[in-house]
């Protein structure tokens, strides 16, 4: 993919990545229910359904007005994120349904070795623990094999499902950033959650 190889330097007794880009995890991250993989043009149905929940286009570039071209452009943008060094966007592939049902993204923050996490799941398969699984897989990798020091997420205070997802994946609430998020023409506070590399191995995901 023409991505620069990471360099490392010791930090608090451990070598953390100092990368300007992120590589796709190899092998692909998976558990018994889902696999996190690259987006493909076969995933248009997933993008279309995601656009049917206004909460998703409000925070992402998922098109709210569906056209096949807009769906293809969304999928193209996801692959470009790795090439441009912005981060990684992975499709949440449900193994039994054999289709994409959501997204988890790992974006490089300006701060060295810090990853920003994003995620959504299409409405028809919510409340099955899929976001919790995907966030656990992605964040375990980032602060484990990925070699990053910190994974963080910014969440609107009233997004209870998202708070539950993060807690289930072992994130800790750190605090509140006032008027931090721009959503359309309005602004919202953000609650900041994080997982740190030092916590690897402490978190045991709940049985589903
Ligand atoms: C947030 C979101 C990703 C959750 O996806 P999901 O696959 O339904 O989440 P899970 O099934 O893993 O549920 C995780 C927890 O949230 C809880 N939950 C799910 N939907 C909920 C709801 N509508 N209200 C309250 N709690 C809810 C579940 O009970 C579960 O809690 P538990 O572990 O204590 O039992 C999904 O609702 C979504 O895509 N929302 C729109 C986009 C979004 O808000 N993304 C996050 C941006 S920070």
Please, could you describe this protein's structure?
The chain is of the alpha+beta class and 208 residues long. It has a single domain (34-199), classed as 3-Layer(aba) Sandwich (Aminopeptidase), CATH 3.40.630.30. Helix content is 25%, strand content 32%. The chain has five helices and nine strands. It has a seven-stranded mixed sheet, with helices on both faces. The longest helix has 17 residues, at 68-84. It is globular. The N and C termini lie far apart (37 Å). Mean pLDDT is 89; it is low at 1-12. The structure holds coenzyme A (COA). Coenzyme A (COA) is lined by residues 53, 55-56, 119-121, 126-132, 153, 155, 159-162, 164-165, 168.
Mean pLDDT: 89
- Spell out the helices and strands N to C: EEEHHHEEEHEHEE
Q: List low-confidence stretches.
A: 1-12
CATH superfamily (homologous) name: Gcn5-related N-acetyltransferase (GNAT)
Strand content: 25-35%
Summarize this structure briefly:
This protein has 208 residues and is an alpha+beta fold. 25% of the residues lie in helices and 32% in strands.
């Amino acid at each position: 993919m023409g991505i620069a190889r990471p360099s490392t330097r010791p930090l608090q007794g451990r070598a953390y990545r100092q990368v300007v880009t992120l590589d796709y995890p190899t092998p692909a991250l998976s558990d018994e229910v889902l696999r996190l993989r690259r987006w493909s043009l076969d995933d248009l149905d997933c993008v279309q359904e995601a656009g049917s929940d206004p909460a998703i286009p409000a925070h992402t570039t998922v098109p709210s007005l569906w056209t096949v071209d807009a769906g293809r452009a969304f999928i193209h943008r996801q692959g470009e994120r790795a090439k441009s060094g912005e981060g990684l966007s992975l499709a949440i592939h449900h193994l039994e349904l054999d289709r994409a049902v959501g997204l988890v993204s790992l974006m490089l923050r300006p701060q060295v070795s810090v990853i920003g996490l994003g995620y959504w799941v299409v409405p028809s398969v919510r409340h099955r623990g899929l976001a919790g699984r995907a966030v656990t897989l992605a964040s375990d990798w980032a602060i484990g094999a990925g070699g990053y020091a910190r994974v963080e997420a910014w969440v609107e205070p009233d997004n209870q499902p998202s708070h539950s997802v993060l807690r289930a994946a072992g994130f800790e609430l750190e605090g509140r950033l006032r008027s931090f998020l721009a959503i359309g023409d309005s602004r919202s506070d953000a609650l900041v959650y994080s997982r740190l590399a030092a916590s690897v191995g402490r978190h045991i995901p709940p049985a589903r």
